[in-house]
Amino acid sequence: MSCKTRITNGIAMSCATVLMFAASAASAKCKFQTDMPSIVTGEHIRWTDWTTFSLAITTTDYALATGISEGERKYVGLQLHTVTTIPRPASKQDLDNAVVIPAGSDVFFLMADESVIKVTTDQAITGDSDFVMHNAKRYDIVTNTIVKAPLTTEELRVLTAQRVKRIRVSTTSGDLDFEFGKKGSKKMQSVLECIQ
Amino acid sequence: MHVRNFFSGVIAITLLLGSGAARAAECKYSDRSTDPATGVQKLATRPVEISTAMVSSSGWVHAVSIGDDRFLAIKLRAKNQFPIPPQLNINLANSDQEQRTGRYDPRLNQELRRLQHETAFVPAGSTLRITLEDRSVIVLTSKEDSSARNKGWKPQSGSENTGPNFLLLSEVNALYPLSAEMIRALTSRLAVSVRMETADRYYEFASRMNIQYPLTIGDKNGRQLQEAVNCVL
Q1: Which of A33, A72, A120, B207 has the fewest CB atoms nearer than 10 Å to its CB?
Q2: Using CA atoms, how far apart are residues B138 and A44, in angstroms rounded to an integer?
Q3: CA B116, B118, B122: angle at the middle one, nearest 5?
């Protein structure tokens, strides 16, 4: 039974109190690293704190998630940390082309019930790369890519209601897959709840 | 009546001096000169460090005004290593011996000269990308070529720290004009990250250790950069 269907004033008041506490508890959890109007568009921009969600134990690649709102538009933000090893110093072209995600690229969310949500990026993205030298024959290109994919109200609702098992991001040089467990999934849900 | 006027005057002068002193305390300049030939005044703020000790490259920013024009000046100090190109096929053990006898392989000298000429060179049109805290990005473009001062070492087989690589310490100063729109953005938002382009690579002035802002220059440095720009307006 929802709070609205309660008949006595006393119960209605306690319901309201519980809801207020729940709302304040949820908002207390929400931390925003960016929370201000854009100097370019004037729209209010909010980015939640990043939360780590991928299984980073077995690989050098990992991902973080954030919930983003720009005015009325909502986005899921993914920060992809990838490492590629090459046998020579990286050229500027290597760094520019390490991770390229053209506008209109697909981002797939494999949900716990095996359904798939497909969202599409609305801007071209190039990862920021730097290289680390280990020895004369081993160089790592370390790339940090921030992917923003717009979400409809329904997609946002499903992503916060159900556990995500895997994320696949399409790039010009192939797909990047990130897998995560229940704990990571809950973290991702919590940041998306903050922009609902 | 005269006494009251006198005290009012003293208070007003004290307040004026106080505000002037406060402004002077905020704005510190490393260069405050006037060109004797043209009479154009130049102001350059003290450097603001925009990188952390976590990376091998360091950067400093000055806000500069020359007459009516405003600039950001960047000093980059970088440490780079380069392997011996495979086509040289040099036996370093022999080279070490030759170095001791003063007959070092000339091809290594030639390669070092090439690296010294090319490393950390900032051609005109190179970009300086600044990301602000509201996630907007401004891109400054250098107007002129800036060559680096490069100090280099040839590889040696016995080098433990660097391996058998060329080691170059580079320092370059580049100047980027600021438009009124860029100044408005820089003075109303903190800079979060700065990426400088050179002919051969990019330099990110940040640590990757901070998860929230993976490439941040830090709040304190961002505020100092903002103050520096305010000091040349």
Answers
A1: A72
A2: 19
A3: 120
Whether the Cβ atoms of residue B24 and residue B43 lie closer than 8 Å to each other: no
Q: Give per-residue pLDDT as tens, B164-197.
A: 788 899 999 999 999 999 999 999 999 988 999 9
Structure tokens at A176: 């990047």
Contacts of residue B50, Cβ cutoff 8 Å, sequence gap at least 6: B59, B60, B61, B191, B194, B205, B206, B217, B221, B225
Q: Tell me the C-alpha distance between B217 and B51, whole Å.
A: 6
CA-wise closest residue to B186 among B136, B142, B124 = B136
Q: Which residues of A touch B163 (CB under 8 A)?
A: 135-136
A133–B134 C-beta distance less than 8 A: no
Q: Which of B134, B212, B214 sits opposite A45 (nearest CB)?
A: B134
Among A90, A91, A128, the residue with its CB nearest the CB of B215 is A128
Q: Assess contact for B203 and B59: CB atoms under 8 A.
A: yes
Q: Rounded CA gap, A100 and A141, in Å? A: 14
Contact B221, B51 (CB under 8 A): no
pLDDT in tens, B15-65: 444 444 444 447 999 999 999 999 999 999 999 988 765 566 889 999 999
Closest-CA distance of chain A to residue B136, Å: 7
How many angstroms separate the CA of residue B187 from the nearest CA in chain A? 11
Whose CA is closest to A94, among A23, A143, A136? A143
How close is the nearest chain A Cα to the Cα of B63, in Å? 21
**pTM for this prediction:** 0.80
Interface membership of B189 toward A (CB under 8 Å):
yes
Question: Chain B within 8 Å of A152 (Cβ-Cβ)?
Answer: no
Q: What is the pLDDT of residues B99-133, one digit of tens each?
A: 666 566 788 889 999 999 999 999 999 999 999 99
Rg, C-alpha atoms of chain B: 24
Q: Which residues contact B138 (CB under 8 A, 6 or more apart)?
A: B129, B130, B132, B182, B185, B186
| A-B contacts at Cβ under 8 angstroms | 64
- Across the interface, of A36, A130, A135, the residue whose CB is closest to B163 is A135
* Residue A73 to residue B125: CA distance in whole angstroms: 35
Residues of B in contact with A135 (CB under 8 A): 163
Q: What is the CA radius of gyration of chain A?
A: 20
